[in-house]
Amino acid sequence: MPEIRWDIITEERVIIATERSRRPHDFKRTDAPAEPKPAFVPNCPFCEGNESMTPPEVDAFRAAGTQPDSPGWRVRVVPNKFPALASAGDANPRAQGIYTLADGVGAHEVIIETPRHHETPVVAPLTQWTDALRMYQNRLRALAQDEQLKTILIFRNEGKAAGASLEHPHAQLVGLTFIPPVVQRHLDGVQRYRTRHGKHPFEAIIEQELREGTRLVRQTERFLLYVPFAARVPYELLIVPLEPVARFEQMSEPLLQQFAMLLQDALQRLYTVLNDPPYNYMLFTAPAGYESEFWLHLRIVPRLSIEAGFELGSGVNINITAPEDAARYLRECDGAAAS
Amino acid sequence: MPEIRWDIITEERVIIATERSRRPHDFKRTDAPAEPKPAFVPNCPFCEGNESMTPPEVDAFRAAGTQPDSPGWRVRVVPNKFPALASAGDANPRAQGIYTLADGVGAHEVIIETPRHHETPVVAPLTQWTDALRMYQNRLRALAQDEQLKTILIFRNEGKAAGASLEHPHAQLVGLTFIPPVVQRHLDGVQRYRTRHGKHPFEAIIEQELREGTRLVRQTERFLLYVPFAARVPYELLIVPLEPVARFEQMSEPLLQQFAMLLQDALQRLYTVLNDPPYNYMLFTAPAGYESEFWLHLRIVPRLSIEAGFELGSGVNINITAPEDAARYLRECDGAAAS
C-alpha cells in the first residue's frame, strides 16, 4: 500500500510507493567514469597551474609567499565565468505592462575545493576537505557584508545527472537579493510549528529520530545524519546540529571539523551503497534577519530518478524507496571503505 | 545583464540569464533513436496484440464487435501496473509520533494514445490524436464521479530525460484526494490577482501577449500558444483558451478539435526546432470545487537542462533562453514540416 507522508516543516506531501523499489545497487550511475581520474587535466580550468583559465580569484588559502592566480593554493574562489546574476544593477522591480521584472543582481562564485582533479570529497584527506568547508565559512562571512544580499546558498553538483558541467571538485555560491520560495516555505513552516508546539521542529525531529532510530544513519557528539521521514527522493539525507546554530560561519573550529567528517562520511556511504551516484547538496544557513532563530542544515539529494510530468504538475514527489530502508542500507555500510 | 522576472500568477521569480544561451539546434537530444520506430514491437505492452501484457482495460475506443483486452481499439486505458496510489485505503491522516501519514489513495491510469508504436503526437493523423484527447475527456468525466478525488492531473512524459520508461505513445492520469502545491499556488495566485485587478490573470495575459506579440507562437480562433513572460525553462509553452473553460471535459467537439490541432502543432514545432526534444506536458483542469472559476491550460516543458543544486535549494529556475527568442524560433518554424 503506498503511503502519503507529510513534511513536518513545510507540510507538503510525499508519496512513498515502494512497489517499483530497487535494491541500492540497481540505481547504477550510468555516467560513472570507467578510469580513475588523473590528478591533473591539462584543459581543466580548476586544476592547479591553469589559474589563467578562470576569472581572477577573489579568495584563496595559499602557501605563504605565493601570488594570487598562480599555483600554491589549497582552496580557491573565483567568480562564475557565466554568472546567473550580475554584481551591479538595479534590483528594483519595474513594470512591463502587466508584468514585473528587474535586473538580475547578486553574487555567483565557484569554490574550487582542491587543486587536484581527482580529489572528490569522498577521497580527499579530511584536512583538505575541512579546508574546503572552512572556505565556505570565509565566503559566507565576506558576503554577509553585502547588505543587498538576503540569502546565500552554497551548493554542490556532482555528476552530469546532477547538473555538473565540470568534473573538478567544486561548489558554487549564489547570493540573492531576496528569500527564495524553498527557503521561505521552510521559514514559514518553522514559524507555524513553533507557534503550535512551542519548540523548533528540528528539536522535535531530533528527539523522535533518536528514539525511533529507524531513519538514523549516524549520530556524532554534535550532529545527526538521517533520512527524513518524508524524504522526497530515494536516499535523501539531512545533517543537522543537535543544538541550533544559525549561520554556517558561526560554527567553531571543533564543530566545523566534526561537520566536515560527518559530511564526508555521508558522501562515502552514498558512494559505497549507490555506486558513485550523482548528487546535489545544499547548505541552508540563516538568511539576513533570521540570525537569531535559524537552525542550519545540509540536505543531500542523490539524483537517481527523474522528475516527470506528475512531479512538475503537482509539486509532489513519488519516492520509491522507504526512508527506513534507505537508512538501513546506509547505516550498515562502512562509509570509509569507499576511500 | 541577467533579468529577474516574476510569474504574474504565482509571483515566483525566474532568472533569465542568456550568457550561456545556445542556438536551438545545440540543445540536441542525446537519446533520440537513430532508426525510425517500427509500428509494432513484440515485447511492448502497449502495442496492439499485446493486450494481455497489461492489467485489464478500464476504457477504450474500439471497433464495433471487438472484445475488451483484444485488438481492434484506437485508444485504450489501463490501470498503471505499478500504481503510485491505490484505489482503496484510508486516506485519513494518522500520527506516528510527531509525524503524519496516510494510506496513499487515488487513481493512476495509463492512456495508450494509439495502437501503433511509432505514432507519436508529432506524426499521428489528426483524427487519431483527437481521439486520444477525447479519451482524456472520457477519463476526466468518469473520475469526476469519484468524490474522493479532488484533483486529476493528466500528463505526458516523452523521452527518457523526461522520465518516460516506455516508448509507446501514452499519457498518464493521476487522481489525488487533495490539491497539490503547484495547483494550490496557482489557485492562490489567481485569487490574489482577481482581488487586486478585478479580472482573471489569463484575461490580462492574453490581452498583453496579443498586443506585444513577441512571445506569441500561434493564435487560432479559440486558443493562444505562447511562451510565458517568466518561462522557467527554455522553450516552455502554454496553451490557453481565449475565453475561460474550467474543465477539459467541458470542451465542445469543435473546441477539442482545435485544441488537438494546436497541441499537435506545438509539439511539431518543438520537434523541428529542438530536434525531437524530451518533454513533459501537464494538463491543468479545474480541481473539484473550482468548476466555476478555473481557466484550464496546458503547459509544455522541454527537458533541455537539468535542475541542479541551485534550483533544488531555492525553487528559482535559471532559464538561459529569453522567452522572446524561444517564441521567435518557434513562430518562424513550419511545425507541420516535422511530420
Secondary structure layout plus pairing:
The structure is a homodimer.
Chain A: E1 3-6, E2 13-16, E3 59-62, E4 73-79, E5 94-96, E6 99-103, E7 106-112, H1 126-143, E8 151-158, E9 170-176, H2 181-197, H3 201-212, E10 216-219, E11 223-226, E12 237-241, H4 253-274, E13 279-284, E14 297-302, H5 309-314, E15 317-319, H6 323-332
Parallel strand pairs in A: 2-15
Antiparallel strand pairs in A: 1-2, 3-4, 4-7, 5-6, 7-9, 8-9, 8-13, 10-11, 11-12, 12-14, 13-14
Helix pairs in contact in A: 1-4
Structure in words:
Two copies of one chain form a homodimer. Chain A is of the alpha+beta class and 339 residues long. Chain A has one domain (3-80, 102-338): HIT family, subunit A, CATH 3.30.428. Chain A contains six helices and 15 strands. In chain A, strands 3-4-7-9-8-13-14-12-11-10 form a ten-stranded antiparallel β-sheet, with helices on both faces. In chain A, strands 1-2-15 form a three-stranded mixed β-sheet. In chain A, helix 1 (126-143) crosses helix 4 (253-274). The interface between A and B is large, with 76 and 76 residues.
Key attributes of the depicted protein:
homodimer, 339 residues, alpha+beta, HIT family, subunit A, ten-stranded antiparallel beta sheet, three-stranded mixed beta sheet, 25% helix
